[in-house]
Amino acid sequence: MTPYTGTLEHRRASLRAELVRLAARWLIKYRSRHATLEQVRKRMRALDAVTPAPRAGTRTETIDAGAVKAHRISTPASRSGRHVLFLHGGGYATGSSAAYRHFTWRIASAARAHVVAIDYRLAPEHPFPAALDDAVSAYRWLLANHAQPSHLAVIGDSAGGGLAFALSLRAADEGLPAPAAIVALSPWTDLALTGRSLRRNVKADPLMNLGSVAMYARYYLAGTDPRTPYASPLYGDLRKTPPTLIQVGSDEVLRDDAVRMADRLRALGRHVELEIWPRMPHVWHLFVPILPEAHRAIARIGAFLETRL
């Protein structure tokens, strides 16, 4: 039987998680309701400056991964021959690998792997399929540089989670070997915006605004049919999708993007593990310096990849 983990309702959110929800609602969600893209980018650049540095012993190199700028992150736990391609979130219009430096070293340690975190081109300056083209280029580069598919995973959060599935679709179509696993954190898989949770959870979600999601979809698609599988992998041929772990918060507007993707994979007989974490904000993993649930979720990612890599 295909493993399928339902909601983790037996767990209660920690006090810290409740405080993070409250702070996120007032400092991020409400402030961003009417913000322009440039204002959002400016705020994110300001956050980059205060993002905690990796733990001592972490090695971070700036590399060219198939003509795509990237950072390669290794820790003392990283094993030779074990690799992770990391695709950051940000609605395809914001974000950078540097903004995740407090997270990617933890993934490197948890997965005991070398992490390549890329800076794909951003919309609206570079709309679909620029991000996917860059992800595929980096994936090809890893394969060409002795990364064995059976020891290579793809991890992405939010838009990067959707991009991980789109990369899997493109690899299958182009005859490339599939990665050993996909880990998708609060993935955005449907740019047609048909998930019921987009409206049902619009008040409960402590971080995301529906208007912002729609704006980013317009920027990235630039007129492309939103049901194009390479943009919205929920509508793709998922029969060759590798074993997958999906983690999402119960109150997220993107909850159904994760649940419906897991349902489709399950129906196709693919190995999928879905975890719905109660009251967690969008990609709560990034609050790892203060959030115990983030530590537990990252440990789960490491345990999942240990069985796959």
Which tags fit this structure?
single chain, 309 residues, alpha/beta, Rossmann fold, eight-stranded mixed β-sheet, 37% helix, globular
What does this structure look like?
With 309 residues, the protein is of the alpha/beta class. The chain has one domain: Rossmann fold, CATH 3.40.50.1820. Helices cover 37% and strands 15% of the residues. An eight-stranded mixed β-sheet has the order 1-2-4-3-5-6-7-8, sandwiched between helices. α3 packs across α9. The chain is globular.
Summarize this structure briefly:
With 309 residues, the protein is α/β, with parallel strands linked by helices.
Topology (elements, then pairings):
Elements: H1 15-29, H2 37-50, E1 59-64, E2 69-74, E3 83-87, H3 101-111, E4 114-118, H4 130-144, E5 152-157, H5 159-173, E6 181-185, H6 197-200, H7 210-221, E7 244-249, H8 255-267, E8 272-277, H9 292-306
Parallel strand pairs: 3-4, 3-5, 5-6, 6-7, 7-8
Antiparallel strand pairs: 1-2, 2-4
Q: Give the helix/strand class.
A: alpha/beta
Fraction in beta strands: 5-15%
CATH superfamily: Alpha/Beta hydrolase fold, catalytic domain
CATH fold label: Rossmann fold
Spell the H/E element sequence.
Answer: HHEEEHEHEHEHHEHEH
Low-confidence stretches: none
What is the number of domains? 1
General shape: globular
Biggest sheet character: 8 strands, mixed
- Calculate Rg over CA atoms: 18 Å
Percent of residues in helical segments? Answer: 25-40%
Secondary-structure arrangement, i.e. CATH architecture: 3-Layer(aba) Sandwich
Strand order of the largest sheet: 1-2-4-3-5-6-7-8
> Would you report the number of β strands?
8
